[in-house]
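Exercise 7 asks you to align residues with tokens for two separate proteins.
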Amino acid sequence: MSKFWSPLVATLVPYTPGEQPKIPNLVKLNTNENPYGPSPKVIEAIKTELNDNLRLYPDPEGDALKAAIASYYQVDRNQVFVGNGSDEVLAHIFYALFQHGQPILYPDVTYSFYPVYCGLYNIPSNPVALTDSFEINPEDYKQPNGGIIFPNPNAPTGRYLPLDQVEEILAANPDRVVVVDEAYVDFGGETAIRLVTRYPNLLVCQTLSKARSLAGLRVGFAVGQAELIEALERVKNSFNSYPLDRLALAGAVAAFEDHEWFEKCCQGVIGERERVTGALEALGFEVLPSKANFIFARKPGVEGEALARGLREQGIIVRHFNKPRISDFLRITIGTAEQNDALIAGLKSL
């Protein structure tokens, strides 16, 4: 603490990102990165952009990327917002759309950046308990609120809420924004973007970090009706008019253009997820149903922290959350077949 700090700073509880250890030959299954690299077309597009134009500012509007996203999802370009990773997009969403003086609602077990944004912007919140089976119950979101946000699939549970239940939440909250955070939707879920034209209170947020293997480029976006997008643009242009650099814009456009590579990678992750789930269940683990690129699992009678420590001693890193309700669970990223084999062997030995 310093006398130079603004008063708010001392009250902040910052987000803790997943560990990025610099250990050789590590089996790294803790941060939900895609085990398969980006499309070769992405690499070529970035190489092409490495020229004298780097002395120039990038397009502040990101028009080429907005056009690619709009074309992919069959929406209008003015229904698309782009930012420096979905975390920045989410930060703008909280600031632009959730400051109504009432608590916002989000699940009690969910993405831990949500309470961080609430602390940063002084937004009251009312976390809503998941069911005993770690599912979102739409009935619980039919209460007064200043806005609603939830990941779908949820993180860290991996559980997916069908779109008819998403619509139930939307219909029950016509005067509040409902944000569906779809970082993992491409691994077996169905995007809510197709509902945007019917619900002016719906905003869908996605990232290119997961299914499109571009965590290192930091590209995220949101899709909603034009009035919601305008609010995000106003905040963005009051903060940073150039959130995406030339390399990120070029790579992101190329990622949307190579649908074949995208589908191949997603199906590869899905296939390995089902294989790992079966292997862990055979070892006595309880594995929650997942539509993400990770699984959430526990072994009855065994502490999650002990399992995580035992794997780490074998050079295998997974994510353990020392939090109420989930302290015995491990969140395990789906890796390559070889990484997953190492994980299964490591758990067998414990």
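Second protein for Exercise 7:
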Amino acid sequence: MGVRKNYRNLTNVERDRFVRALYRVKSTGIVDQFANEHASHFTHGIHRSSHFLPWHREFLLRFERELQKFHPDVTIPYWDSTVDRSPSDPLWNNNFLGQFNSAWNLGRALGSATLPTPQQVQTNQGRSTYDTFWPELERVIHNPPHVWVEGVMGGVASPGDPVFYLHHCWIDMLWARWQLAHPGAPFVSSGAGAGLNDPLMGWPDRTPANVLNHRALGYCYDTEQVLPTSPAAQGDDMQPGEVLNPGQSIRSADGQYTFIYQGDGNLVLYRNRDGRALWASNTAGRPVGVCIMQRDGNLVIYAPGGKALWASGTWQHPGSRLVVQGDGNVVIYRPDGRAVWATNTVQP
């Protein structure tokens, strides 16, 4: 599975390989082909509709596969524009994306708008339904970086600028993160022709249903925990990166309460003295995979194929750990000791 990284986390080898791959696909006409495709469909439902996110997920995947013809290990990195907000950031260095401005005549005017803020992203991630999530993501978070870069990036043929792919990779990551935090939220159509099983513009054999699970498409993000190598939780807590495999459990320090990922797929908190279930994820009967305390702070139950079945929604608190307490409560604590999630099962 390919791992898409924050561009700041690329090794020198990965960075240079990505740059060489960009030059290769430019020389073969692929960059212009993708830019023209985006331009031709710009007003045909790939923006301002519920197909905005799935269409661009498919678009990025197709471009990434073209890059991988140069080298199979190339993945698209992402640019988090709530963090990298200055024209002097390494993103724009001449050994990375800065060189393309003159080489490809992109006409950038960095700083031409106001970039989104971390608070805007956090607010957007808190939306509980797809039809409230995607319009705000597109308008408030996706649109401003296009204008901030300007030039080719500010027009309908924006994929002609390589930063388009880093920007949209970040947008896709935010969608993937929201999906993990809201595993039960269904796709909501914005109108005729924009449904879950309606074809994506330009690809009659591809629909949003085909791209909802990014892991099934063969990639994940560097904010996600790679499941197979994760150690099992022990004692009374789950540290960042630790898992509960089916049948595994942790207990409160006094032995009075057990938190178990059962063989039926349900995550349950039991009071041991009488076997009473105090809390459950209500995922019994769903595909049985793994429960993981992710490094981003989110407690997630994954099916074997990587689909998130349930999540605590605490992805924005990296380094958090889960504790089974002696009072009957299971709590996720940030590194600074602040509680960000709980089963709310304190016993009298």
